[in-house]
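User: I'm writing a tutorial on reading structure tokens. Could you give me a worked example: one chain, its sequence, then its tokens, then a sentence or two explaining what the tokens reveal?
Assistant: Sure. Here is the example chain.
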Amino acid sequence: MSNNHITVKQVAGFIGAEISGVDLSQPLADEAVKEIRETLLKWKVVFFRGQNIDHAAQIAFTSRFGEVTYAHPHEDEPLEGFEQILPIDRSRFERRNGLQRSSYESRWHTDVTAAINPPAGSILRAVNVPSFGGDTQWTNLVAAYEGLSAPLRALADTLKAEHRFNARRHLPAQSYYNQRISANPIVSVHPVVRVHPETGERALFVNPGFTSHILDVSRQESDLLLELFFKQITKPAYTVRFRWNNGDIAFWDNRATAHLAPQDLDHLDVERVLYRTTITGDIPVGPDGFRSQIVEGEIFNSQLPTVFKQRAEKLVAEPALV
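And here are its predicted structure tokens:
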């Protein structure tokens, strides 16, 4: 078993801590899992340096914190033998979409909020990263909410917003990614403020990558409110920036953070390969008790590919429903 006690070092003012004293290639003691979870809930994202683990060990580590989901709702070519792992591979993205870019989503985002139950957490492992650039940033959505004035917090507490993939279209319609979205659309309505199911904290639960509009207001009001909220969650004060090395791991609470992929590599000919696993999440709940609602799509968990396959088969059998 790995060591029972970990060492925690805070790395920014509002978010982020580095954990040492644990070997993730070995089975973790229950006490270590408990301490990591507590640290994650406090600091929202935690980092492990120099953990040279393989796919199986990453899945095993992720599973200590909940059910490991399928790689991604729009992934139809998972790694052979490891369908829970999503490659964040620049060359793979370019081959599929015909664009020179380091990430599927280049804006601030919280993972898979188009789903009715966005992942509870995400774990990203660096395998082949450049010796310069390629940093990832995270922001604390709880701190962002608490930084709003009282009247704005009161307003945000009452609002609902739609989340969908490609909310502000940024990939060509013929791209692999957009074809997958069209085949299996996923759209949900979430509270603009989410009550964290473990800590009870309130988080500003919107992001430029997935939030399309706020409900029950005019389009102009929605755009202005979202612009205000997006600026709030991306204030530098609430963020942390992580410099990757091969073997490093980041583990973030997807219920209380948004993150930003590298912005400085798209013009450079460099390789960047990381692997992500995600933990099945619960359905968000707002301060007024509103529970998120499905507009289109299914629960996101380890069984999602089977659900999508069954739906596709049904559409073929019953074309009148299309």
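What the tokens reveal: The chain has one domain: 7-321. Residues 219-233 form the longest helix (15 residues).
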